[in-house]
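Human: We require from you a standard protein entry with sequence in single-letter code and fold as tokens, and nothing else.

Assistant:
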Amino acid sequence: MKNPAYDRQCEPSRVPWLFSLFKNSEDYPRFASAILSALHRKTEGYDIEHLCDLTAQMAIHGDNAAASALRRRVLDQPFGLEDDQYGCAAVVLLDGVEAVVTLARRFGRSLIESSDERLPFPYNLAGESSLRPLADAALRELAESDEAIRAFWRSEQAWEREREADMVPSNE
């Protein structure tokens, strides 16, 4: 049997392929306009993430309107611990360590305001990319003087210690 449905949970993103279909097209402005319009209207998580990823590709390839729209969409959303945040990976892809620091500060402020000791799950804002060592070094350094970054960094480190403890084989 063949199932042509796309399953985002177990298949790689189709954004690079989708973007390649219109990035050099004379119809780029029409596609870009529709994507940016939908970016502001959509409320379903998978749709928002997909649109953020597509907008990031547009921005990376020089579309300044897309870059501004992506930053607004991501940074204007609430960062409360009970809220879902969308597009963080896309803005990190676009802005690198600067975005990691900005997002870490936002998450850290939410953590401080909630009086919780750690975030509900690890964010690993830089993922496992080559950006991770630079981002971790920046966060570690800024955690010394920035209360919000410190709260975020401590949370990430607590999750990392828990993950490492789970990986230790038991002697049973």
The radius of gyration is 18 Å. Residues 13-95 form one domain. The mean pLDDT is 89. The chain has eight helices and no strands.
